[in-house]
Amino acid sequence: MENTEYLKPSDIKELLLLMAENKDRATVIAGGTNLIPEMRNGVRRPQVLVDVSDLQELTGIRLDKDRLTIGAATTIAAIAASPVIREHVPILSKATGELGNPLTRNRATIGGNLANASPCADTAPPLLALEATVHIADAGGKERTVPMDKFFMGYKLTRLGRGDVMTRITLSLPYRKVKGGHTKLGLRKAASICVASVALMLLKENGHIAKVRIAFGSVAPQPIRAYALEALLEGKTISDALLSECNALLKREIAPISDIRGTESYRQAAAGAILRRNLLQAWS
């Protein structure tokens, strides 16, 4: 780590200037809960670290009518404790409250959790189900938006390019009649890495599912939206037969692996069980 240059901009203008000057060498750091261990283990060797942890422009939670904005450098702890998040998007509040341990949540940021692009990123499934949008500024200061379901490109791969900075995440608040659900399975109750997770948002109208969004974590190379499941469910009424169809289709939608936390078959069975549980809960 002694060969790494450390830079700490005072505002976003200076940040973008530093990113432009060090475009091919710069790595953004905020909480560092993933990056620092990787550096210590020699997995990553950034030439220049650009610290954005204290930039006010990249932190905070703001509610503007029906639009919610979360700065990319906002800590997981701040999101979990936010009354606004708890009231309007409880599935995100629940997911952030279950991420790591208090020490990790106090340092880790939502932008870092997404940019790391781990299949088990705790904030990804709820943000996918909420149809959030990622805002990215390039080294020249030009901003672009990427829908959350287009942000992940594969294992540890995202739409972030060299010199890019994630600035914020935005989402439209769910309609009051939309019900949500989130379940994370781990090997223990605290500081647990996800074995399988599901997040969903469901709108029930006239005894049918008018709209549903479903996302999974830890059952594919990246966090995923379950589009085929959504298409199967919309317009239908929840029944045992429909839930059985969902379970059969789910096996074709996900691609879990076997590792030290769980086998492929366990993850398939677990994903089906927690999907069923959350669908029944949201429906009722």
What does this structure look like?
It is a single chain. This protein has 284 residues and is of the alpha+beta class. It has two domains: 58-172, 2-Layer Sandwich (Uridine Diphospho-n-acetylenolpyruvylglucosamine Reductase, domain 3), CATH 3.30.465; 178-283, Enolase-like, domain 1, CATH 3.30.390. It is built from twelve helices and 14 strands. The protein has helices at residues 12-21, 35-40, 76-81, 83-88, 90-97, 102-107, 110-115, 124-129, 148-151, 227-233, 240-253, 264-283; strands spanning 5-7, 26-29, 48-51, 61-64, 67-71, 133-137, 143-147, 152-154, 157-158, 165-172, 178-185, 196-205, 208-217, 224-225. The strands form four sheets. It has a five-stranded antiparallel beta sheet with strand order 4-5-10-6-7. It has a four-stranded antiparallel beta sheet with strand order 11-12-13-14. The chain has a three-stranded parallel beta sheet with strand order 1-3-2, with helices on one face. Strand 12 and strand 13 form a beta hairpin. Helix 10 (227-233) runs antiparallel to helix 11 and helix 11 packs across helix 12 (264-283). It is globular.
